[in-house]
Amino acid sequence: MKIALFLLIGVSAVCDTRAFTVVTSRVSVTSRSSSLFAGGFEWEDPAEQFDQGVENPFKNPELMKDAEGNMKIDAARLLGPRLQGSNLYLIGMMGSGKTAVGDIVARRMQTYNFLDTDEIIEKATSLSIPEIFEAEGEDGFRDVESQVLDSVHAYVRCVISTGGGIVGMRNNWAKLQTGMVIWLDVDPVLIMKRIEGTDRPLLQTDNPLETLTELLEKRKKLYAQADVRIEVTEDMDPDKVVDCVIEGLHNFIDDNPPAWKMAKAKAQSEGLDWVK
Known about the structure:
Number of helices: 11
Shape: globular
Strand content: 5-15%
Order of helices and strands: HEEHHEHEHHEHEHHEHH
Largest sheet: 5 strands, parallel
């Protein structure tokens, strides 16, 4: 497959020039660690290495606003330390807003870069998505898409917008689940309003809405495996969706603490000397 062979050479270069030229943080963090003892062994408290004292701002409003109610810091900027470098993957149907939302999330976080797998494919192959579908068919496109995901998931601190059908290949999920997955769930009728007049290869049928609805039904169980689901309605602009994504991620992190944190809490609740 000519496209697939070319892609092996092109993807890395596209990724390097597209998103990784600027990786800076405006938040200065002083690293420190303490030698502690637990179970007879010396160790470094992971709380100091990973947590950096950042909590969920939606459960601690004083982190975002001062006494007068003025905004002190964007909740998105507090995600970086809590994510510990994990990538964010946006999944969902075509036209669900993954690219627009992902770009805003990354900009607001300030320490993460944005990548769009479809854009990378087009730049690496010098072909549009419809042209790839025409030349290689859907199966060929999905193979190319998997190669791109295989390349980009090796990077860290990225917000990555993916193609609507990327969830259909089982090996892709192993890569998606190395980060946190957000599903933008949009009704097919609303999607059709958004993509009217665009060239979508899978919707070149007599009844595009029916085709789109059937596609969603096939993929829904896969999309539902996401860590965070955002139900997007017609009255929500991209900024509102981003707000929901950011709050959903903060809450997910609270509900799914690292294993070491759960073990530490369990030991302390049982009155054990976790740290002396």
